[in-house]
Amino acid sequence: MKKLILSFILITYLFGCSSNAKTSSNVSTLSSPQTTQSNVATQIEKIKFKTEGGTDLFSLKQQADGAKLVDGNDKEFVRIKSDESGKVKIKNASEKVLGYVVAEKGYWKIENPEQNKDLYIFRRKNNDYQLEDVAKKQVYQIKARNNGFEIETPDKKLVYKVKVKEGKTSLRDASDKTVFSTKSGFSPIAFTCFGLDVLTREQQAGLAYAVNLTKGQ
Fold first, then answer.
1. Whole-number Å distance between alpha carbons of 100 and 97
2. Which residue among 111, 116, 201, 207 is least crowded, i.e. fewest CB within 10 A of its CB?
């Protein structure tokens, strides 16, 4: 009789351990998606661009599949979507397609909404860059400097400077006056795209996003 009781207690104990192990395993499995979601949320960042006086000028809200550009009042005016191939679609707040940015080896193409015409090419040349028009004629030269970049016209006229100092990246005009700046971790060469005045703000944002994905490589 004692042996029977001891056997029963042993079986009950073993079953209880197995049940606890399964429960622990289930808790671990259920917690994994929450951890993943937390990691994704951590990667989503709002990149703020401010005036010299500290006023929010516009912001780039990064999302899992692209970004949104909003003004100082948080009103959306550009939507950016990227796919696995690296192609970036530029749309306005009404979902109208405004164009595309396509990354190639050593350059980025800005295409029209129908994707049958190249509008501009942002090309890397060693440590420097240049923006070309549809005829591959140079529009801007972007020259690397120790503390950032300088944007010049083909006749060497300085248009803007991009300076990186003490964690802040700023766009400055030819007289060294700050136009706007950011303290977010945004690639300086991508930031430079906002100084290409021949482009619309929507095109600048799309190009900046595409260039930032690869840090200008």
1. 8
2. 116
